[in-house]
Each structure stands twice: as structure tokens, then as C-alpha cells.
Amino acid sequence: MNKPVRVRYAPSPTGFPHVGNIRTALFNWLFARHNNGKFILRIEDTDVSRKVEGALDSILTSLKWLGLDFDEGPGIGGPYGPYFQSQRLDIYRSTAEKLIAGGYAYYCFCSPERLDSMRQEQAKLKQPPGYDRRCRNLGKEEISKLKAEGITPVVRFKIPLEGQTVFNDIIRGDVVFENSTQDDFVLLKSDGFPTYHLANIVDDHLMEVSHVLRADEWLSSTPRHVLLYQAMGYEAPLFAHLPIILGPDRSKLSKRHGTTSLMEFKKQGYLSEAMVNFLALLGWSLDEKTEIMSRKDLVDNFSLERVGKTGAIFNLEKLTWMNGTYIRALRENELVSRAIPFLEETLPAEVKRPLSRELIKLIVPLVRERVRTLKEFADMSDFFFMEIPEYSTSLLLGKGIKNKETALMAVQRAHGGIEQLAKFDATSLEGLLRPLSEQIGIKTGDFFGLLRIAVTGRMVAPPLFQTMAVMGKDKCLKCLDSAIKKLITLK
RNA sequence: GCCCCCAUCGUCUAGUGGUUAGGACGACGGCCCUUCAAGCCGUUAACAGGGAUUCGAAUUCCCUUGGGGGUACCA
Predict the structure, then answer these.
(1) pTM, rounded to two decimals
(2) I need a labelling partner for A363 at 20 to 30 A (CA). Which of A101, A226, A339, A413 fits?
(3) Based on the structure, what is the number of domains in chain A?
């Protein structure tokens, strides 16, 4: 109980981490940091067939993006390495042999085909599927004979035939399994690689992991792990099975639920700090009201006691809202820096690069309150960078002013007034345009709406005068010219 | 089928025997207003069902139902 806290995130490199995986990483990291412990990254690459190229990179990138730094692991090493299971094969093999010698495990020569037909048979007879333990009591001669035939066996664990396995889960309390319902699972595959169960237990022990915080889907294999620890004479770590993150249909999160890959959220313009905050609240809460919490708040307050038991649906709406509040809270310069990559991505090639930081800085106060993601930031501000906005002429005669002549007159009057404006700022523009609206007898809403289209090409944009001020006199005039032409040529 | 876990507004959740069951997202309405947002105010909406214990249950126990996970030489 007084052992130093050492926890690990142990993904297998079989794909890009999705928000569920990474939430597990986050909880481990928070727990480690809160307790001044160590956070270890261990790569469980024991399934050669499922290995995906680039998966390791994406794991590293994901952790880095969220700022989940690890103390030991790939790239940085550590006193308990190597941190790739594929580089620890000898350890698992010798452990398996020890287990066999001790009578806790045995060689199994059954072919995949036999296992398969056995399962089909069991399914037909409505019996619980499971290995029938044919090889459990093979004699020495039989074993050598089968080996001589060239069959490479797997190693299976000998589940006690009777009794029960009990363990205490920090989140769920005591959990009891009847040993009779457990299968003689495989420890070592015929390709010489260990299964998750073996490798995981061996490494957690060797790496002195104190707490295993993992997703709930592992709960039902925990008795196997407990039995393994016992067989090996190891002290088991403490377990905490975290509630699972579900898709909108309440099933385990997977690709078919759309955007689930963490880095996809980055691409969509979500901030990592919002992501961390949001993910932390998926299964954990501080109290009855706190929503927005900094990384430090989270580290300071995180505790397993306040982790819930129920699976949580990933609520994109709420994440988006939270992201908006984080964007609004960003310092101006910071938001500029963060928005630039998205503008680079969104803006057409004609817009000359590098983009002007000065201009973006002027745009920030105008769009900050109107966007929830950085992508929306880019989408909303593209017209600031274009010469003349593109839009359909019909927009000019949209909802307010239906009459072509009236619209034309209004734009011309605005053009004339602006041309003579000495000072081109929001206040002067308002001083000019508001009275003008009355002079020409058009409601301000309609008049400003018309100008908004002319200047931005959109019906929805930041406040008109400020927008125009940022755009500058020349450009505004050009836009108005263009609108006038459009109206004239309109039949 | 079998094993395990879970069960409060649509969603994320607070709540550990006595609360008008609280907050947040969303939705809806209002204020503000040149559009859209933001902000502020308000409305909507939940203890799955049934027993038991108790003076008193969202809170404890049991059953039912529902949901999820597992049941691989995947993790």
C-alpha cells in the first residue's frame, strides 16, 4: 500500500488511439501526477498479425498533443526496459517454462482446426465454449512424441478446477468468479509470442506497476491475471477498471461511430486543453458543479474515489461547447498562433503566404466569440484574406431590400460616403452609415445587411463596422464597386 | 447460451437514509442587438419496475427488466 505509485498506459500498436484509449491514458497520467508517481508507456506489440504501420507514431503524437508526458518508455528508456514487449520475448518464454515446471501450465498440441470444430460442436449443443483440456494431462512420452511430429505447441494455463477467484477492484469492490467458468487460456502462442495475459502480468510485475488502471472490458479477464500472479508467486497490483466510453448507440466505441480517433479532433480544430478537460469529465467529476478545469486543477484534484462506474457516451456537443469557451479564454497572441495552421489549410492558394499575423490579430476579437473550433475560425474569416468575396448576386436582394434600384442606390450612397471618410474606423463608419440609413429611408437592419453581403459576401459575419475597419478603406470600396456592378448587370 | 459489470433529466454528472433531487451540454423562450455569436435571465426534463428493511429511501438488500463487456494461438 505504501509502494510508490507506478502506473502504465499499455496500448497495442494496432491502430490510431481513439478517445476511449486515450482517456485511459489520461486517467493513468492524472493518477501518476497527482500521487507524484511514475507514468510508464509500454507497447504491447505481441500480435504480429495485427500490427499497423504508423500506429506507434500516432500513439506518441496523441500523448504529446495532450501533454501526457511519460517517465519511462519508448524513446526515453528507463530502468525497467525495454518497453516494447516484442523485445522481451525471452522473459515470457522462460516464465512460461517455469510455470510448466511448477505444474501451473502445460503444452497443448491441439490444432486450430480441432479447436474450431470443438467450438462449433459446443455451440450446437448450447454448451459454454471453452477448451476441453485434452492436453492438460499429457504424459512425458506423449509430449515428446507430438513434438517429434513437428507440432509446435502452445502453452496453456491450468485453471484450478474448483474454488473461486476473488479480487478487489478499487472502483467496483469485490468481484468473484467461479474457477469452473474459466478457460485454460493460452499463455504462449505457437509463434513464440506471449498472449496479452502472460506478457502483461510479467511486465507489470517486473516494472513494479502498483496500480492497473484499465478499461472495464478487462474486468472479466482479471481472474486469469490474479491466478497467474498467484501461480508465479507475485504480489498482484491494485486494479481499477474504468468505465468504458460508448458511442451514441451505447456500444463500445469504434470506427463506425465516425470521428473517434484523437488526432482527428485536432484536425477539426479542437484544443488539446479542452480535450483533456472534457475527457477527464467522462467518468470522473470533482463535485456537483465544476466543469472548466485546467490541467493543474485536474492533477491536483484527481482521485480514483471519484471515478464513476457507468459507461459514458461521448457527447460531441458538449466538447464543442467546451472548446468554444477555451478558445474565448485564449490570449490574443496565442489564438493567433493556433489559428494560423487552420487558415493555411483553409485559405485558397491565391492568398499570398506567409499570412499576416498583424491582420489575424485584428480578426481575432471579431471572430473569437463566434467560433467553437479553430476550423470554424478559419471558415469564418476567410473573406478577410480574399480580394473580393465571391457570392451570388441574388444575395444582394435577399430578405430586406427586394428592389434592385433601391439596393443600387443604397450601395452607391454608402460608397460615396465612405470615399470621403477621413478616418476609417468603426466609430466613424457607424457615424456615417447610421444616419445615412435614415436619410435614404432604409431600416438599419436591411441597410447594414446589404452592406454586409457586399463587403463579406455572407449573410452572417462579425459586426459590420469593425469588419470594414479591419478590411480597410480601399478594399471596402472595391467590394462596394463590385456589388454595384453586380447590381447593374442584374436583369 | 454462460460469466462479469452497470442502471438519476435526451447526454455528461452531483447526490452515500430525511434535499423543492443540484450543476453542465442540448433544446426552447426572453433580454441585448446591424446579421450571427457571446453574455445574462428563465423554461423544459430524471431516480427502470417490483418487493424487503426503516418512522423515513435515489441512497441498504433481493428479484425482474434493460444496457454493456467478456467468452480467440486479439489486445
Answers:
(1) 0.95
(2) A413
(3) 3
